[in-house]
Specification:
The chain is an alpha+beta fold. The protein has 2 domains: about 5-165, Thermophilic metalloprotease-like (3-Layer(aba) Sandwich), CATH 3.40.1830; about 170-365, no CATH class. Helix content is about 35%, strand content about 25%. The protein has 12 helices and 19 strands. It has helices at about 5-15, 35-45, 60-70, 70-75, 80-85, 110-115, 120-130, 145-150, 155-165, 170-190, 275-280, 310, and strands at about 25-30, 50-55, 90-95, 135-140, 195-200, 205-210, 215, 225-230, 240, 245-250, 250-255, 260, 265-270, 290-295, 320-325, 340-345, 350-355, 355-360, 365. The strands form 4 sheets. An 8-stranded antiparallel sheet has the order 13-12-9-6-5-17-18-19. It has a 5-stranded antiparallel sheet with strand order 7-8-14-15-16, covered by helices on one side.
Length: about 375
């Protein structure tokens, strides 16, 4: 039985999240598991006068690449991928894994090697999306694998995903615009501020934000959404943080991460599970140990950790930070082949002050 929410999601993506205009070149990427949504987006792009280009990805291909490719093959950058990133107007990526653990035993050095080889491509993406030349949206199609990670049945997970996207609302776009208006008040309050202090059971951290911009994430890129974020000053971050949820990168789960920053760089790093992988990723390049993002999750409709960063970083009552590349539209200047988000719960007494003024306590904004 078809789900009308799939068609609704496609329409929200092409009309609001990353709008398609007449004549736009549009790439649509996902696995065969997401066929219903991929085809719905394909049709919606055609109806808006765009030129859709389907980019199917096969489950297991990444594992084969990392296991069997030579160094020269890991270094190779596809001219097709290059053309899409350099010239297309809109990019949709539909997360639709059928096995989220397929890279669990792949050597982290090879993953870092591939990421470094494709760093220039990522930087082109970051630059074009910051200027508005490239509009993009990442969303998710519910699969059994994602449902299992979230410890839900597929039907429960579908309801969770589409509910978090506000697709059950009569007018999802109007609902997202309301969220955007609320978050804009926070962003406006933060404008011109200099220092963020985060203190709580899991962290004691100072983050510099002078000259940086907080972005109002209201469903126009990630979908669903619900956060405000910035790219911190690269040489200011000082202190320590223990991340309360597992951090997942390239299919690898690392738990119990603790980082200590000095003058903006990670100087000490440990984990209860996956510490070797963590260290290899932090050694990917010079920028991998720098804090590239500081963010606060605002989506109170997401209250359960599901092992999927698209949803988990939006958890109401949490903050998240990413080591590696920063988004240029925040004013961030850090460059790296990686961008790895890690989440810390603040609902148990965590506090944020900005230039000494109370801003946030135990998951609630005070301004």
């Amino acid at each position: 039985m078809s789900d009308s929410r799939i068609e609704k999601l496609a329409r929200v993506l092409v009309e609001y999240s990353a709008p398609v205009h007449q004549g736009n070149q549009v790439s649509i990427q996902g696995t065969p598991a997401a066929q219903p949504l991929l085809l719905a987006i394909y049709r919606a792009v055609l109806e808006r006068g765009g030129h859709p280009f389907l980019v199917p990805t096969l489950p297991g291909a990444d594992e084969i690449l990392y296991r069997f490719a030579s160094d020269a093959q890991l270094d190779y950058v596809s001219p097709v991928a290059k053309m899409v990133i350099e010239t297309f107007d809109v990019q949709y990526r539909v997360m639709s894994d059928t096995n989220t653990k397929s890279l669990s035993t792949v050597d982290g050095v090879r993953i870092a090697h591939y990421a470094q080889a494709h760093r220039a491509l990522q930087e082109t993406f970051m630059r074009r999306q910051a200027t508005g030349e490239l509009r993009w949206s990442v969303t998710l199609f519910p699969t059994e694998a994602f449902a299992q990670d979230a410890e839900m049945s597929l039907r429960e997970y579908e309801d969770f995903v589409y509910g978090a996207c506000l697709l059950d609302d009569p007018d999802p776009v109007a609902s997202w615009r309301q969220i955007g208006a609320r978050q804009q008040k926070l962003v406006d309050w933060l404008r011109g501020k200099k220092v963020v202090r985060v203190i709580g059971p899991h962290c004691d951290l100072t983050v510099g934000i002078e000259g940086r911009t907080f972005v109002n994430a209201d469903g126009t890129k990630n979908f669903p959404d619900g956060e405000i974020f910035t790219g911190p000053q690269e040489d200011v971050t000082q202190g320590h943080v223990e991340f309360t949820y597992p951090a997942i990168y390239q299919g690898r789960e690392v738990d119990g991460i603790a980082l200590t920053f000095e003058k903006g760089r990670v100087m000490q790093a440990s984990a209860k599970k996956g510490e070797d992988f963590l260290r290899k990723m932090l050694d990917t390049d010079e920028g991998a140990r720098v804090l590239g993002e500081f963010a606060i999750g605002t989506n109170n409709g997401i209250q359960k950790f599901t092992r999927n960063i698209l949803f988990d970083e939006k958890l109401g009552g949490t903050i998240h930070m990413a080591v590696g590349a920063s988004y240029p539209d925040t004013g961030g200047q850090n460059h790296s082949a990686i961008h790895w988000d890690m989440i810390c719960d603040m609902r148990d007494g965590g506090e944020i002050t900005v230039d000494g003024a109370p801003f946030y306590r135990s998951g609630e904004f005070l301004v």
